[in-house]
Amino acid sequence: MKRAPVTAHSRRLRALAAAAPAAVVVQLVAAPAALAAFAFGTSPKLPTLPSVAINGKAQKLGATMANFSVTDTRGTKSGWNVTVEGQTGAGKSAVFAQYCPKAKCGTDGEGYVAGGRTLPAGSLKLNSTGAKFSGGTGSTPSLSCSTGCAVDSASAVKIASASTSEFTWTTTGFGSESLLLSVPTTLRALPAEEVYRVNVLWTLSTGP
After folding, report:
1. What pTM was estimated for this model as a whole?
2. Of 70, 128, 133, 166, which has the most beta carbons under 10 Å away?
3. Backbone angles phi, psi at 205, to 5 degrees
4. Mean pLDDT (whole number) for 183-196
5. What are the extents of the domains in the chain?
6. 182 - beta bridge partners?
7. Other residues' Cβ atoms within 10 Å of the Cβ of residue 172
8. What pLDDT is recorded for position 7?
């Protein structure tokens, strides 16, 4: 079996994992006047996933979800939600897809490769079992992914919510496999310098 540190295949898979944080986009959905009082303190961020030996077998890669925080000092106690989804649209991909990160990769230009290889939607899941919020006042916000939430899907998934919570609440306790990437048997190596990449959108919005 080829080991991850020495194979071109695994280098591309490492690039897949490393590209995820760079693709994260944070969007705040709130009234303009409330932005200073209602925001991510520390934005959600995907960690770098470990390398893997591509051996034709189904595999799972685990990593620890980075902690994040939400600050709400509006005084309305109207609650909030955090959702995650894969982004669609021009120059974006809601699932891990073949991507050229430079001006030219062989015959492919910069960006997602039309008709290129992809991983199935829902390959990357967040599990919040054992994690919790602490630090603020009012009711403790809850995390919603005890059975696993798809991160790379075009449909928004609620991962956290609060009702009468105020001030800054911060997550702690995410496990070593709180993020789990399922690698299918059909995963194939890409041309030199290309990677699998996904665009992920974390949204903080008002509401119970």
Report:
1. 0.80
2. 70
3. -135, 160
4. 89
5. 4-206
6. 60
7. 11
8. 26
